[in-house]
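A quick aside before the break. I want you to see a complete sequence-to-structure record at least once, exactly as it would be stored in a machine-readable document. Don't worry about memorizing anything.
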Amino acid sequence: MVVNVEQGSVNPSVGTLLRLSDALGVGLPALVEPPAPRSAKFTPSGRGAVLWTGGGGGRGVLVAGTEPPDVVELWDWTLAPGERHDSEAHSDGTRELLHVQEGAMVIEIGHDRHELTTGDALSFHGDAAHAYVNLTDTPARFSLAVFEPGVGAAHRTEGPDA
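That is the input. The structure line, written in tokens, reads:
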């Protein structure tokens, strides 16, 4: 029947469409409605969400993000001289990509310590406690991308009994 529908040689009944949607695990609208348009989301300069502010004037600004289940966040961070931001471990599988735009900073991941300067980049597992630290006397600015797979998805188990 699926082949005949694909070839346009039959016009399926509502019952057939319901059985197909059930077999595919999607609702009937997913089979018969046109796909929803995927529009771009624009964030004007200076309009990102400031979600962290430091005592010395630093800040973490979420400038863009994607929808679940696989969330990607794009951040613009500034750490004032002497500032530190400690981050708890994120969900399992989280990855972070960091690129220093200006200045120098230290990234602490567990017992590991990474010293970065302008132009340096670091990728790491964000599912461990970590910290962003500016030990210098000048501001440090960096871009940060955070990938969090399966955010909001139901708990999945893997293995022979799943």
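Two observations worth writing down. The CA atoms of residues 53 and 59 lie 4 Å apart. The chain has a mean pLDDT of 85. We'll return to this after the break.
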